[in-house]
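task queued by scheduler; priority normal; single chain, no ligands, no partner chains; default sampling; output format set to structure tokens
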Amino acid sequence: MSDPSSINGGTVVAMAGKDCVAIGCDLRLGMQGLTVSYDFPKIFQYDNTFLGLAGLATDVTTLSEVFRYKVNLYHLREERKIEPQTFANLVSSTLYEKRFGPYFVGPIVAGINSKTDKPYICGFDLIGCINFADDFVVGGTASDQLFGMCESLWEPNLEPDDLFETISQALLNALDRDAISGSGAVIYLITKDKIVKRLLKTRQD
């Protein structure tokens, strides 16, 4: 039996730069080799924090709504926006609650801390163990290819434009080497002042 996390394909990557952070994903929804949609979002925004979900499509949709609900509750109780570190712990505890029947996703959190203006990225396994990183985090079916590309291209203290170019090249080249990811890509570039969303064209075969 195939891995449930890879049934629908999909890839997510996040990278940290100098006072900026970027997160990107492909847009394909498939059923193994069959492409179902060219516009399936895998990145979701909660205040100034972004969550990338690569894995089983039904769990991606379910978890995005679960976190929307929990972040809204956080707003009501705390009367402030949620910080990336706080959101990461929320993701971890939510996944661990379902550890005996886990969601088949590999979440990635990226954002800028509003108090320190420092970038924050981290990844998770199926049951919520946090993998902190200062450089990049990858997830999904093209993660092996992404590791190689990111290690080759990433440099410390990248400026926003350089960070966008680096994550774009890493993601596009990794998608070219994975049959069940691709069909377009989207990159979110986050700084303390603004959030920029850019679409990338990829092969559609």
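post-processing summary
- Residues 4-200 form a domain with the Glutamine Phosphoribosylpyrophosphate, subunit 1, domain 1 fold (CATH 3.60.20.10).
- The chain has a mean pLDDT of 91.
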